[in-house]
Write a structure and sequence with these properties.
With 360 residues, the chain is of the alpha/beta class. Helices cover 27% and strands 24% of the residues. It contains 11 helices and 18 strands. The protein has helices at residues 11-23, 35-40, 43-49, 62-70, 89-94, 104-111, 136-148, 170-183, 195-200, 331-337, 342-348, and strands at 6-10, 29-33, 56-59, 77-79, 97-101, 119-125, 152-159, 190-191, 208-209, 235-247, 252-253, 259-260, 265-270, 287-290, 293-296, 306-309, 321-325, 354-358. Helix 7 crosses helix 8 (170-183). The structure holds pyridoxal-5'-phosphate. Pyridoxal-5'-phosphate is lined by residues 33, 35, 80, 160, 194-196, 210-213, 220. Belongs to the alanine racemase family. Its cofactor is pyridoxal 5'-phosphate.
Length: 360
């Protein structure tokens, strides 16, 4: 048997989550965000899973879009950060990509390029995130200018929230108010909602949603939420116990003996390490499922292995199944023990981990 470290990707769960996003605003469209290799799940596979029902796909850069077009994906593909250099515009036009425009310099570049087909532009406003986007006071003139360019087909109005995962945080309402004040009489479709806003803010559900993390079944919120709790996990990261030993009280386990046994402890060694993408900074006590029972990480995660406490686990033996996150253990919960978020857990899974697709 080969090394057991496996990421099992449940395609039907991914579709369920997309349909949940769509069901929240039936007249709205949803751009399935599959940037960063579909948050580590495999962009081509995930695009195939939704090729009949997604309204569009969203990626971060042209390389990611080209990969999808070469795989035969015909749906619109939105470049969330637009183009990085003007020489991408020809390809954007040829491949019929939708393109965010977030700066006046990009509008200049567009105006100075001859294109075969006019392109769909998503004009991004910086309503308070202060990362990308045209400033509110320049937004209306930018919109007017884009509408006059022969290089431009439809324009969609777009912004992005800094704090939508923090429900009730006034910054989201402020950003929405800023955006709405500037755009209220502009005749164009609107897209403002990422997963957290799609789930948590009814008035953020406009003509296009942009769900990302929710498609992969992880809640963006730190507390229970009636809709987010209906999401189904897509990735299960699993492996096996490859060794077991009894360690006396007072002995340390693993590098630097970070964990010291306070009683005689049955220690299980799991074929999963930071080179697989399991975070090295996972704390002692991070939940791990062994044989369907919840137990804890003990000791520092090494490159290829980690150690768990089997003292209370019944029936554990070499070969027992270990789940690091997935169907029975939410990635969002594991993330809190690693001072991170599910996004980095998913995107961090490395190519050494065998990917297996089910319910295709
Ligand atoms: C990544 C991204 C999204 C999706 O965000 P989630 O929090 O994963 O839902 C939406 N919009 C933009 C502009 C993005 O870059």
């Amino acid at each position: 048997m080969a090394r057991a470290a496996t990421a099992t990707i449940n395609i039907e769960a991914f579709r369920h989550n997309y349909r949940l996003a769509k069901s929240l605003a039936r007249s709205a469209k949803a751009v399935a965000i599959i940037k960063a290799d579909a948050y580590g799940h495999g962009a081509i596979k995930m695009a195939y899973a939704l090729e009949n029902e997604a309204d569009a796909f969203g990626v971060a850069c042209i390389e990611e879009a080209v990969e999808l077009r070469e795989a035969g994906i015909q749906k619109p593909i939105l470049l969330l950060e637009g183009f990085f250099s003007a020489d991408e515009l020809q390809t954007i036009s040829e491949l019929n990509l939708w393109c965010a425009v977030h700066s006046l310099e990009q509008i200049d570049a567009l105006a100075n390029t001859k294109l075969i087909n006019p392109i769909h532009v998503w004009l991004k406003m910086d309503s308070g995130m202060h990362r990308l986007g045209v400033m509110p006071k320049e937004y209306r003139s930018a919109f007017a200018r884009l509408n006059q360019l022969e290089q431009v087909a439809e324009v969609v109005l777009m912004t992005h929230f800094a704090n939508a995962d923090n429900i009730g945080c006034p910054i989201t309402a402020q950003q929405m108010q800023c955006f709405d004040e500037v755009t209220h009489d502009l005749n164009a479709p609107i897209s403002i909602a990422n997963s957290a806003a799609t789930l948590g803010y009814e008035n953020a559900r406009r003509q296009f949603q942009r769900p990302g993390i929710m498609l992969y079944g992880a809640t963006p919120f730190s507390n229970p939420h009636p809709i987010a709790d209906q999401l189904q996990p897509v990735m299960s990261l699993t492996s096996e116990i490859i060794a077991i030993r009894e360690v006396p009280a007072g002995e340390g386990v693993g590098y630097s003996h970070r964990y010291v046994c306070n009683q005689p402890t049955l220690v299980g060694t799991v074929a999963m390490g930071y080179a697989d993408g399991y975070p090295r900074h996972a704390k002692d006590g991070t939940p791990v499922m062994v044989n369907g029972q919840r137990t804890a990480l003990i000791g520092r995660v090494s490159m290829d292995m980690l150690t768990v406490d089997l003292t209370q686990v019944t029936g554990a033996q070499v070969g027992s199944k270990v789940e690091l996150w997935g169907d029975s253990l939410a990635a969002a919960e594991v993330a809190t023990y690693c001072d991170t978020i599910p996004y980095t857990l998913f995107t961090g899974v490395t190519r050494r981990v065998h990917k297996r697709y089910i319910n295709e």
